[in-house]
Design goal:
It contains four helices and eight strands, in the order ααββαββββββα. With 147 residues, it is an alpha+beta fold. The strands form two sheets. Strands 2-1-8-7-4-3 form a six-stranded mixed beta sheet. A two-stranded antiparallel ribbon has the order 5-6. α2 packs across α3. The termini are far apart.
C-alpha cells in the first residue's frame, strides 16, 4: 500500500471553493465523518479548515520530510511554508498576520479504513514558527513585534 501523500497535501493547499465539489474531493481521501485529534468532524468542517488555511498563507509551499507506512497507518512529517497574510488559528488562539514567511513543521498520524483517512492525530509547531519571525515572545525574550 502506498497512500497518496502528495494528493493529500495538494487537497489542503490547492485552491478550494466551499461547496459540493470541495466536499466530494475531501471524501475521496477522508471518511465522513472523520475523527481529528479525538473529535468527530464532518467533511464540510475539513473544507472550512482548508479554506482558513489558504486564507492564512500566500504562496504555500510544502516539503515532505519523512513518511512511515504500515498496513492501516501512515505517519507524515512535513514543512508548510508561506507568507503569513491572514489570521492563523493556533492552539493558543488567533495569531494576526505578520507579512513574514512562516515555516511550520507538522506531523500527521493517519489511520486508514478502506484506503481513506478515518482518524488522524495532528500536531504543528505553530509557536516555533511564530517565534522565528518575532510574532510571539517567549519568557526571557525581548518585545513582541508590533507592541
Amino acid at each position: 500500500m502506498s497512500f497518496d501523500i502528495d494528493g493529500l497535501l495538494d487537497l489542503w493547499s490547492g485552491p478550494i471553493v466551499a461547496g459540493p465539489d470541495a466536499e466530494a474531493a475531501f471524501r475521496r481521501l477522508y471518511t465522513d465523518p472523520v475523527v481529528v485529534n479525538g473529535a468527530e468532524l464532518a467533511v464540510s468542517a475539513l473544507v472550512e479548515r482548508a479554506i482558513l488555511l489558504q486564507d492564512t498563507f500566500e504562496s504555500v509551499q510544502r516539503e515532505v520530510l519523512d513518511v512511515v507506512e504500515s498496513e492501516d497507518k501512515v505517519a507524515v512529517a512535513f514543512r508548510l511554508s508561506g507568507r503569513h497574510v491572514g489570521p492563523m488559528s493556533t492552539s493558543a488562539g488567533l495569531a494576526p498576520p505578520t507579512g513574514e514567511t512562516l515555516s511550520v513543521r507538522v506531523i500527521d498520524i493517519l489511520t486508514l479504513t478502506g484506503g481513506r483517512i478515518s482518524s488522524l492525530w495532528m500536531t504543528a509547531d505553530e509557536l516555533g514558527a511564530l517565534n522565528a519571525v518575532g510574532a510571539v515572545r517567549l519568557a526571557g525574550q525581548g518585545e513582541v513585534r508590533g507592541s
